[in-house]
């Protein structure tokens, strides 16, 4: 009798763990893979994969950008200047942020460099990042929407509101009226989860992601493999195969 009770308890635990949503993740044969480092940013600027002259070689659509409200599609004004420059009107859309899919998997967006240079030919690919260290067992599937020359080889600069504006002082200050250094510090951004309350409502969940799913671990190392982009990510950027 005791034995039956025990196996029922195990069955219940098993059912619970498999009841989480588990989307199919499809690795790309011969795709990019390796070990990498992460940082984080949110400079409010239109991401570099939003310019069609940058990504036209791959016949992909540019990443969708938004007007100053962070919601209205501004991609229609093709190649509008980024709000990070004088007279710019295109900003990062506030919904291009991370969200939790299940307790071990999240989806989101990232800037990246694979070569240490500006890898615009990698715009809109997707990679599955497997965190190392304290976050081992958790994975973050990101679409690459941005790139940049200050990035190192295999560096993923994760797009997280309140993650720091870096060297771009004009984006968040013109879009949301922050000081030039944005929310928190220019590199790293806010320090405490409560500071996410300072951000516009649309960006607060994306800010808390770092403190909740990522357990406030600072720039964890990762291993990565290239995977097919989930429809949910492509729907938010309009970019991808
Ligand atoms: C979350 O989804 C991924 C992808 O399907 C799956 O491998 C993982 O087991 C899921 N996590 C849990 C806790 O169910
Ligand atoms: C945004 O505008 C572009 C250009 O007109 C269009 O291709 C894209 O589908 C639009 N995105 C949405 C979500 O409506």
TrEMBL record:
Reaction it catalyzes: Endohydrolysis of (1->4)-beta-D-glucosidic linkages in cellulose, lichenin and cereal beta-D-glucans
Active site: which residues?
43 (nucleophile)
Q: Tell me which domain of life the UniProt entry assigns to the organism this sequence originates from.
A: Eukaryota
Q: InterPro entries in the record, alphabetically?
A: GH45_Enzymes, Glyco_hydro_45, RlpA-like_sf
Per the record, the similarity remark reads: Belongs to the glycosyl hydrolase 45 (cellulase K) family.
Which PANTHER family did the record assign?
Answer: ENDOGLUCANASE 1
Q: What is this protein called?
A: Cellulase
Give the gene symbol: GH45-8
